[in-house]
Structure formats: C-alpha cells, structure tokens
Amino acid sequence: MKLSRYNILKKIGDTTIFFNAATCAMAIVDENFMRVVEDVKNNSYDEKKYSTELISDMKSSGCLTVDDADELQRLEFYRNLSKYDMTNFSLTIAPTLDCNFRCKYCFETHPKGVMSEETQSALIEFVKNRLDVAKKFTVTWYGGEPLLTKEIIYSLSEKFLELCAKNSVEYDAFIITNASLMDDADVENFKHYKIGGAQITIDGPKEIHDSRRRSISDESTFDKLIDRVNVLLNNGLRVIVRINVDKENINYVDDLLLTLRARIEKFSELAIDFGQVSTFTDICRSVESDCYSNEQYADVMLPLYEKINAYGFSTNKMSVYPAPRTNFCCVDYANSFVVDNHGYLYRCWNHVGNFAKSHGNVRDFDDKEPTSNYLSWIEWNPIRHSKCCDCKIFPICAGGCPDAMRNSADGQPVCGTIKYNLDKVLEYYFEQLKEGVEQ
Ligand code: SF4
Ligand code: SF4
Ligand code: SF4
Fold it and tell me: Potential cystine with 298: which of 145, 251, 273, 417 (Cβ 3.0-4.6 Å)?
C-alpha cells in the first residue's frame, strides 16, 4: 500500500485531523493511524500488525491506496467519464437578455428581443435529437430576466415534458430570476412544468438591496421578493436566496439574515448562497474597486456561512465543506449548453449574448462536426498545468474557472477560494466533528 498524494494532516492543539482531497473524508486520528502512516513512509507497512477495521477505514477514506495507483490518471479517467457522458443533457436557456432591473454589477447589456417562434422550433428540434441517448434532461431558465417571457418558458416546458415522456427521459428544471414579475399563477405553473426551484438574489436589507438591484422603474422590489420566497417555500418549491457580496454590502449581511429569519415563515428550509461579485465584462467595470479578489474573498466567506448556520438556516450546514469534483463547471461537459434567444450556443454562462464567443447555433450545431471553438473548451484540461498536477487540492478544485484562466495575464489556472481557506474550513468542521464525538 502507499499513501495518497491527496492526504492532508493538520495539527489543531493536541489533536491531529486527517483530510483526503480525493474522497473528502475527514477524521480525528490517533496514534494507531499515525503509526500506519509512518510505517508506510518507512517501507515497514505490514497489514497483519494493525486492526482490520483501521486499515479498512484508511482504505475507504482514500488515505491508503494500492501501490500501482496513479491518482492523477484516475482523476483524468473520472473527469472524462463525466465530461463525455451523453446520457446527461443540460441546457441553460435565456429566452431573452432583456431585464427589468439594472443591477450595478450586471455584466449583460440587455438588448430588447425575445426568442422567436422559429428559434423555439429550432431549439425543440435540437433537444429532440439529443434525447435519443439522454436519460436525464435538465433545464435552467436564465436571462436577462426569464419571467419577461413567461409564455415562452411554459410553452417550451410543455414540449420538453412531452418529448421526455415519449423518450422515457427524466426531466428537471430550475429558474434563476429576480422574482419581481412572479405572480401566484407562476408558482402553479412552476409546479405544473416541473420547475422545482428558484434562485432569487437579495443583496441586503431593503435600502441596500433596492440601491444595488435597481428596477428600471426605480420602485422598491424588496418586499415583493420576500413575499415570493414565502409563497414558493409554502408551495414546496426549493428556494436559494443568493446574496452577491462585495465590499459595499458585506457589513449588511447580518441585517439581511435577521430580516429573512423574521419574515420567511419556513426559514429553516431556505437555502442561502453567497456570490462573489466579479467584473466579467467592461459593462460592470464600475464596481471593480468594490470586488474582492479570490484570496480576499476566501477570508470573508467562511464567517458568512458560519452566520447562516448560526441563524438556523439549516439546509446550509455542509455548504462550505469541500466536495470532490471532476470538472470545475459545465463549460467542458460535452452535452451541456447555454442558449440565447437567437439560438446561439455558448459554453460559459458569462458569454451569453456575446455572439463572438458562441460556438454554434441550435440550427446547425452538429456533434459529428463540432466547431473548433466548442472543442477548445471541451478539451480544456488543468492536468496540463504543472501547478494543478502538483496541487494537493486538485480533486476539490479541478483547476479553477476556465474562463478566468483564459483571461488571466499569464494564461495559468486561477486558484479558487478553497486554495486560500481550506485550513480554516477544516478547522471549522473539526469543531463540529468534535462536538459530534463529544455528544
Ligand atoms: S436581475 Fe440579473 S440580468 Fe437583470 S440586471 Fe440584475 S443581474 Fe442583470
Ligand atoms: S467558465 Fe467560469 S464563469 Fe464560465 S460558467 Fe464556468 S465557472 Fe462560470
Ligand atoms: S487552480 Fe490552483 S487550487 Fe486549483 S487545482 Fe490548480 S493549482 Fe490547485
């Protein structure tokens, strides 16, 4: 046996904790565990000397692995399995890029126009052709503000559901919306058309939210959003309240969490997520000075999640615990696409509406003759960078945001926040683990 290259041992006071980045197993370990580790290092490992249970745990946690294991090769194998898995088909659809908000950090331009009937038909054909092999089809409604085009969403959903039923394909949908246009009929339609949940961004208490996420009519939207969160949760739908954080609003997060706790009836079922405000395009350059770098964000992020757990938003308990990931995001999944209202296809969510970055159109994209732009994203591979190959946390980072790497001055992978705060994250969960052991 040999030790995994992804083992991390960390001393906290008198206690040693073990974490393996390939399995994300974490444990408080004792001298018997350390003895095995030392024996392996000194080539004196002899399985008969240790308890069967300990060795079994050390193997299943990923700490010990077989001598001929090449863990990077394994990661590459699993990465390829998920990347080229055509049984999972996912679309992020922006039926319009127009929006009734003008958030100060928005990276989109909001051209007028909605998906035409002709483009809808082409999109349905595109979907139909992919359901022959797909077993699961997932749609995320996106924009602009998708609820500006409710009829299109429900009409396409109807067709997608029919096609999935005909092909025995599992269907699931989700919506990212500013929620200002959502009425009770929409909530019923969400249930009918299998839109199982919504992400709604609220950026702070009323005044802060309304100043950052301005509606074009300059009306306050805060109270309406709180009401919509209640209605969705009370109807059994999932809700993620997203709080986009930068230096301007970070000090108002407590206020917002207290308000949510007071005003959301089923607050313990509400998931809260934080987004790091970034300047993806020149359109949002004006907020650049308020943005955190990944390194700075790593410092402020954990206390934010600690707050939401402390306030009792219980769905979030494990939200910062690292998870093994084969790919950083959807960008290099062969069967995952972002579609705009003209039918243009993109790899990255942040490119939607930027035709120059499109890799085809639903009318003509052909798997047998993929475009080089498409392939350049699919073939993106952090393993080609020694920085990632040698990285102890490669299995939980998977090379960082591919678009950030493309935009970086040195063309190197850009490390995600976990690179900078893993120590603190482990300490945080150690406290929880310790409490569990002590109880
Ligand atoms: S609601 Fe979304 S799409 Fe609309 S301006 Fe705000 S961030 Fe942009
Ligand atoms: S490439 Fe980066 S910005 Fe684009 S979808 Fe992936 S994580 Fe998001
Ligand atoms: S991007 Fe940075 S943190 Fe991520 S795997 Fe590569 S070197 Fe590690």
Answer: 417
